[in-house]
Write a structure and sequence with these properties.
The chain is α/β, with parallel strands linked by helices. The protein is 42% helix and 24% strand. It is built from ten helices and 14 strands. It has an eight-stranded mixed sheet, sandwiched between helices. Helix 4 packs across helix 5 and helix 7 packs parallel to helix 9. The model has no long low-confidence stretch (mean pLDDT 88).
C-alpha cells in the first residue's frame, strides 16, 4: 500500500473528488438561503474583452440559475463600442470619464451593444445550458439627458445622448424571470423625446436592483474589490459598512471610477437591496466564491 493511501485511506485522485464534494457542502446553506432570490449581476471592464473570463463568469451565472436563484445580467461594452466607432470613422471624446455620444454615435452604440455584445452574452449563457433572453434597455429604462457643470469654469456640460435613469419598468424583467429565463440587459434608455440614450452600466444595474428590490447586486469587473491602497492588492477591504463609506470618500480611498460605483451601491442598499458585492471577474469562478463560500474573494458592502 502506498504512503498516500495509508495516510488518507484512499487514493489521491479520490481526495480531489472528495474536496469537490466538500465545496458543494460548504455552498449548501447559501444555495438554500438564496433560492428564488433575484441577483443583479453587472459585467464590465476587461472581463468583457476576455473570452475565457467572460465564459467563466457567465458559467457562474448559469450555475446560480440551475440551483434556483434568479440572476439578471446587466452588461457594459465600452471597448467594443470604441472599436465600432473607429470602424465607422467616428471620433470619440470623453468628458469626466463619460463618452460624449452625439447623433452619429448613438446609432453605432446601439448597434454594437445590442447586436454584438448582448448577442454574445446570450449565446454563452445558452451554451452553458440556461434559457437566456436579450432585453434591450430602452424597453425598461426611462432616462433624462445627463448634464453637469465644469467645476473649473462653471460652464454647462452636455454629453449628448447619454442618459440618467429616472424610472425603471420592471415588468419585462419579471416576466422573463417568471418564464424561467435569465434576462441579459444592455444599458440603453428611452428619453422623453422618444430617442435612445446610452446609460452608464453601473448606474443602470443599480437602478434595476433598486426597482426590483433584489436580494443582491454584484459588480463584476477587472479590479479585486475596494482597496485601501490601489497599488496594493493585499489592502482589500473585504467588508464595507455603508456608514463608513463617507469617511473613505473624504480620505480619497474611494475616488476616481470607484466613486460613482460606491455611490450607486449605497443608493441600492438604501432602496432595500440587502448586500452589494465587488468582484474581480479575472479570477476563475470569483462570483461563486464570493456568494457561496464562507470567506469570499471580493468586497461586500452592507447597510449595517
Amino acid at each position: 500500500m502506498s504512503a498516500d493511501v495509508e495516510q488518507t485511506g484512499h487514493p489521491p485522485a479520490m481526495d480531489a473528488v472528495i474536496a469537490k464534494a466538500d465545496a458543494l457542502i460548504e455552498a449548501l446553506p447559501y444555495i438554500a438561503r438564496f433560492k428564488g432570490e433575484m441577483i443583479v449581476v453587472k459585467l464590465g471592464g476587461s472581463v468583457m474583452e476576455s473570452a475565457a473570463d467572460l465564459k467563466s463568469i457567465l458559467t457562474d451565472i448559469a450555475f446560480m440559475k440551475v440551483v434556483g436563484m434568479r440572476p439578471i445580467v446587466v452588461h457594459g461594452g465600452g471597448k467594443a463600442i470604441s472599436r465600432g466607432l473607429q470602424r465607422a470613422g467616428v471620433e470619440t471624446s470623453f468628458v469626466q470619464g463619460l463618452r460624449v455620444t452625439d447623433a452619429a454615435s448613438i446609432h453605432i452604440v446601439e448597434d454594437v451593444i445590442k447586436n454584438e455584445v448582448n448577442a454574445e452574452v446570450v449565446r454563452i449563457l445558452r451554451e452553458a445550458g440556461v434559457d437566456a433572453r436579450p432585453l434591450h434597455g430602452e424597453r425598461i429604462f426611462f432616462a433624462n439627458r445627463k448634464t453637469g457643470r465644469d467645476p473649473a469654469t462653471g460652464a454647462t456640460l452636455d454629453w449628448g445622448y447619454v442618459g440618467v435613469p429616472m424610472a425603471v419598468d420592471t415588468g419585462p424583467v419579471l416576466e422573463l424571470l417568471h418564464e424561467g429565463a435569465v434576462p441579459a440587459i444592455c444599458p440603453l434608455g428611452r428619453g422623453p423625446d422618444g430617442l435612445v440614450y446610452n446609460i452608464n452600466a453601473d448606474t443602470a444595474a443599480a437602478a434595476l436592483a433598486k426597482g426590483l428590490r433584489a436580494r443582491k447586486l454584484a459588480f463584476v469587473s477587472d479590479v479585486p474589490g475596494l482597496l485601501r491602497d490601489p497599488a496594493d492588492p493585499a489592502s482589500l477591504i473585504d467588508t464595507l459598512h455603508a456608514a463608513d463609506a463617507p469617511a473613505l470618500m473624504e480620505q480619497g480611498v474611494v475616488g476616481g471610477g470607484m466613486l460613482p460605483k460606491i455611490q450607486s451601491c449605497l443608493e441600492a442598499l438604501e432602496a432595500g437591496v440587502r448586500k452589494v458585492h465587488l468582484v474581480d471577474g479575472r479570477m476563475p469562478h470569483s462570483l461563486l466564491l464570493e456568494i457561496f463560500t464562507n470567506k469570499g474573494v471580493g468586497t461586500e458592502i452592507v447597510s449595517s
